[in-house]
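Researcher: I'd like a structural prediction for the single chain below. Treat it as a standalone chain; there are no partners to consider.
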Amino acid sequence: MMEIVLKNEPKRKKIRSYSLEKLERRAGLLFATPALIGFLLFVLIPMICVFLLSIFKVDLMTNTFEFKSFIYYDKMIHDADFWKSVRNSLVYMVIYVPLTLAMGLGMALILNSKMRGRGIVRTFFIIPYITTYVATLVVWNVFLHPTEGPLNSLLMSLGVNHPPQYMVDVDWALPILAIIGSWKDVGYHCILFLAALQSVSKDYYEASSIDGANGLKRFKHITFPLISPTSFFLLLITIIGSLQAFNQMALLTKGGPAFSTTTLTYHIYRSAFEYYNFSYASAVGMFLFLLTLVFILINWFAQKKWVFYQ
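Model: Treating it as a single chain, here is the predicted structure.
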């Protein structure tokens, strides 16, 4: 009888460990199910629909679909307006991404230092982010009005006879929209950078002070490496946000003047909802998706050289 019990003992342990592993897998799948359903409903299925829409011609009058293969992609490649919108999107990204990250990190470093009224200053920094886009853009539109805006009135009172025309100037319009977008989003970046800075142990700074390191060296060798995971995350969402910029173009400039602020997203909007060419708009949308994916993959592989995970 005793021999039978001893022989069965390892088998029982094996069965228990297998059951526990199985339960953990089931629990993991259960927790991941809502996210998977959301991904399928709001990301994967819409992407498949957009691709199918880009290879069919849609007739809204008769509700018919006609297979056109890749004719809309060919039209897109030979469309001069499309390439202008690509250029505008890249210029917007080049201005918006470094400006937003630099301002967010700079503001976080200021708030992380010892200063009076830090809570009030932090509230001022986050106000633009929580304010609705329409309200902030109306304020900017009034502030930068070419003839009656307070900024140009101030410049003219100081003797500037020909102040910038901002959003009605071909050269100024897109940089101004990028600056407005950066000002709107910088509060969010500041909060995340601040959280990352406050997670850095003070022991590192005390040890570096004993070794004689100045502020610049402490930032280069301690602060930046330890907040690099947060910096990488913010870099990715900032790139994606820059390629999806739409509100400023739609509410302030309508893509003008002279197509100078028509980005890819606004080009998609005009093609779909002004010219009712949904198939062409879907083809541009697929290009935008691939362009975003390329930038994400480049940064994903490059992060191995500068992101430090503790």
